[in-house]
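so i finally got all the pieces together for this one. its three components total, 997 residues if u count the protein bits. some of the lines might not be protein, just check the labels. i wanna see the whole assembly predicted at once instead of chain by chain like last time, that was a mess tbh
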Amino acid sequence: MFRRTLMTTAAVAALAVATLSSASAQSLIRLGAAAPMTGPLAGGATVTHWPAVRLWVSEVNARGGLQLADGPATIELIEYDDQTNPQQAIMAAQRLATQDQVDFMVAPYSTGMNLAAAPVFAQLGYPMITGTAVTDQQPELAQQFPNMFFVLGRTSVMAEDTAHVLVDLRERGEIGNRVALVNVADAFGIEMAGISRSVLESNGFEIVYESSYPLGTQDLAPVIDGAKASNPDAFIAWSYPGDTFALTDQAIVQNFAPHVFFTAVATAFPAYEARFGAAAEGVLGMGGVNADDPAFQAFATAHTELNGQGPDFWASAATYATLEILGQAIEAVGAPDRAAVLTYLQDRSHSYETVLGPVSFNENNDNEAYWTVGQWQDGVFRGVAARGREGAVPVQVFDGWE
Amino acid sequence: MFILITGLLLGGTYALIAMGLNLQYGVARIMNLANGEMLVAGGFAAFWVYTAGQVNPIAALIVVAPLAFAVNWVLYRVMLQPLVTRAKNRGQLETDSILATFGMSFAFVGVMTWVFGGGYFNYAFLAQPFEMFGSSYAQNRIVAFLIATVIAAALWLWLTYSRAGLRMRAVAVNPRSARLVGIDVKATSALAFALGGAITATGGSLISMFFTLDASVGVLFTMKALIIVIMGGVGDIRGTIIAALILGIAETAVARLIDPGLTLAAAYFLFLAVLLFRPQGLFGKKPT
Amino acid sequence: MSTREIRNLIVSALLIGLCCLLPVYGSPYWLTMGTTIAMYAVLSTSWALFSGPTHYISLATAAFFGVGTFVTGLGFQDLPFWTLPVIAAALGAVLAALVGMVTLRLSGVYFVIFTLGLAEMVRQVVTWVQNQTGHRGMYVLTSLTEREIYWMLIALASLVFLAGWLIGRSKLGFALRIIGNDETVAKHSGIDTALAKVLLFMVPGAAAAATGAILAPRYIYIEPSTAFAPLLSFQVVIMALLGGTGRLWGPIAGVIPFTLLWEAITRQAPNQTLLLLGLAFLLIVYVLPGGFVGLWDRLRRRYGGNQ
């Protein structure tokens, strides 16, 4: 008796599976994603990239899939680890396209991996909408790779806006002219520090302490000590996650509390607030979001529910937005037709509704509306400066590590 | 004064990173490229007990150290001893152990990514300032330094005055002659490897108080440890400690007086210079 | 030249010709695989040319490779592309000669660590110089496609093989075999061991730098952390040892299966790639101690009769 029931159940289940798969045979979109799960950038990708990608796929499938001309299509996600290695990033993109024959691909994580994989995307005609590449080469890149779109923004603008925050504070009479400027010595840090220096100097600021430290350094007591000895009004660090934490830690220990305290990548991570709590209040960082926007709040809630961790207050939403854009383009075309979707994306008159707000691309495939600087205020990292976005809150002067 | 104290604290951290490797490489003859992963594992263990159970990471050492000892002992007996037996000469063993432990480091990173995920791990423990000579230093670094001192002193006393320590030094000098005088080389090597692993994991737990770790970061520590061990001289614990302190002070001095961008370059430069002029290390004995 | 040597030369030329056809007949996927294999083939074979006879394990590949990518990164806008690998090779050879002169007196393990430290020091110095000059991230945007990069690598691989073959026939090769067997004997028989080793060390230096220069357009974005990634040095060693360093074709016999294995693991187990790679790695070390060359020789001894 028991055995018969079991067999019947099995048969019914098999039938159900068969029906399901035949029904979905034509309406399944294969989406490939390769990004770091191991290697130096795995930490960042685990916070920013993977949860956002998985969230989008699960939300689309939960509402029945993308609405195409001949009915809805659910999404199958195929993931690979690129080991933070450009060689592997190239291989993974190639594998996804030609072996797994995915319909679309998620752009990789970080500037370096995106650019390494870009020729493969371009050659095989895949749209590449990146949410984690910050660069200043959009015109050149868009010319070389007309299928590449940029959502996160430009490096120079990020650095300029950070300087402008200082200008504002000085005009309000809150800070003086002295700035300590440090950076992590890799392409990102060097570029950002270079732009900040020239913008700050042309605005009459005095750089009283300037130094860099090697990638991966977390023993930063000498840097903070040097910065403190120069008695600056503002401290700006173009830093990466590990050193962002270490710099903050040391600043607290040495009670180095200038009126502006800025650290770059990872300041917008929820882990920053979890680590420093109320002490983080008033710290400035790269990125930001409109934290009061219901769209972002809904995104944050769903993100936490699915992944057990909140989004960061910057590139998480941008990564999610790249997929929203892709999804809307596919739905507008009505079929998983890469060439048609690419043509649709390349039509600059189109605009997309995303968690960031409306996004459109200019002649360099560049999104011109994005957040540049944020600040921890009341336990939330709020955008204080943006290009083309509403909802920036006034920047507050940093009042110590209490 | 600031440079000296900060440098000493950093040197203490380096000693924690490198002492274990010195035992493993000096006595057991295993150039352990998975050393950094063992360290990160120790850090993760401390993180986990601290966040899950609010257990003081220093108290957690009571569990972490014996556990790491056991794991490393098994590792040596199962994975590495066959290589030692198989090797015809020292060069062959070196090649094989580099390859095998490199494979292990991959596997460890894989396991840690699997279990803990790839994200960043840190927590605040004793991250308050401590005032000394007009400057303030992080309490957790001072505590780590003190524990490093205790470990180093205990290790040195044990190696110098106990019978087991004597056996270990004999194996470090020459495994073949050690066997001739009736020392169980295999058991001694396993003990050294396990002890080294336990010290490394302990170091990891302590370092996690002030370092942000992730599953893939171990290789950085391995490189640093290798440099310190070679610089200090293989098989001599004093050499490692002094090399660690020199490196800590030199890096801090360069960072504060010249340019923080050159700290690592300075460290490697110092290391290469030592290798060139004293290839046996600061405290190593010249091979005859 | 014996008939056997002539036969081997013809076979090699045919095989290389066959490799050149891959971009024409193969799919883009296999072209990407081929490029990866060709890259490791150059690096491992040239590595084994030095490390095979001398038993010195060099972890400096990443240093030379990184220097090569930076040569392209700095020069690709002003110089014709074909000059860049040549310049890089010259620079790599000079760097190798300098390193060789000061370090090859060191015995085995110190040399290993020294070369590892060297790659890191070069990276730190390059980064620092970039920082001092306010140099931006480098974008190597060229019109080179993957197939051209592949052909260049095949050409480079052929050169390395030719060099290996010539060295094997030359006095230098003879001297090196003696050094490998017993350095004291070599010294006593009047061989300038230091010079022989330095000369030989320049080969992997030049080859790795040229490889870096050729591959820079493939990576596009050049930054020290990826250009000098220490993992590369280890991968090259592993592949060469998997193949076996006793013969010229040994490393290639390691590169091809290893690359395919890596690809298969990455594909089958995207979430446990590193774990499985590590285990596969351990398996190789324990099961194939002499590499494929060792296995081949054992099999031949057992079944080949009086060969």
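The radius of gyration of chain A is 23 Å.
Chain A touches chain B at residues 36-40, 42-43, 45-47, 84, 182, 185, 211-214, 216-223, 225-226, 241-242, 245-246, 249-250, 252-255, 266, 269, 271, 275-277, 309 (CB under 8 Å).
anyway lmk what u think
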